[in-house]
Design a protein that fits this description.
This protein is mainly beta. Helix content is 13%, strand content 41%. The longest helix is centred in the N-terminal third of the chain and has 8 residues, at 13-20.
């Protein structure tokens, strides 16, 4: 993340999208039977966020046309900062053979398999922030970023 978000605070849309460009792992948030659901997914950036649901996924097919949220985060130990990005938009299953083939040739960290169900989320709303990493001596854990968070001052989360 070095050079992308040097200070803590809110991130503009451009910085958020740059952070997501590396691809990797995130979470998709959707509604299932009128209840919120969150599922971890692989993703890459290609005219929006493209998530993979695995070869047996009924999940992405159920999302086709729905409004969903996607969240990813990471850390930059060198600058003692963490980042969080949330994308909200419409989800659509990628069915076009040429697009699927192009995505399979991607140089991203995650390359979808030929049987993978792919869903593209077109970004309507994008928000993000950075916050300082702090550590509790001997815990090896990263506590909440502010004193107001759960377990503040106790060294526990």
């Amino acid at each position: 993340m070095t050079g992308i978000a040097p200070s803590t605070g809110r991130l503009d849309r451009q910085r958020c999208m740059r952070l997501l460009e590396r691809g990797g792992y995130g979470r998709v948030v959707f509604t299932e039977r009128a209840l919120p659901a969150i599922v971890p997914v692989n993703y890459l950036m290609d005219d929006g966020v493209v998530i993979g649901g695995g070869s047996e996924a009924h999940l992405p097919q159920a999302l086709d046309g729905d409004v969903v949220a996607f969240e990813a985060d990471g850390t930059d130990v060198a600058s003692d900062a963490a980042w969080h990005v949330c994308v909200t938009g419409y989800a659509h299953v990628v069915t076009d053979a040429a697009q699927r083939e192009r995505l399979a040739r991607s140089t991203a960290a995650w390359v979808p398999g030929t049987e993978e169900v792919l869903v593209r989320i077109t970004a309507s709303e994008v928000s993000g922030r950075t916050f300082p990493l702090t550590s509790t001596p001997h815990s090896g854990r990263v506590p909440w970023p502010s004193a107001a968070g759960p377990g503040a001052g106790t060294g526990h989360r």
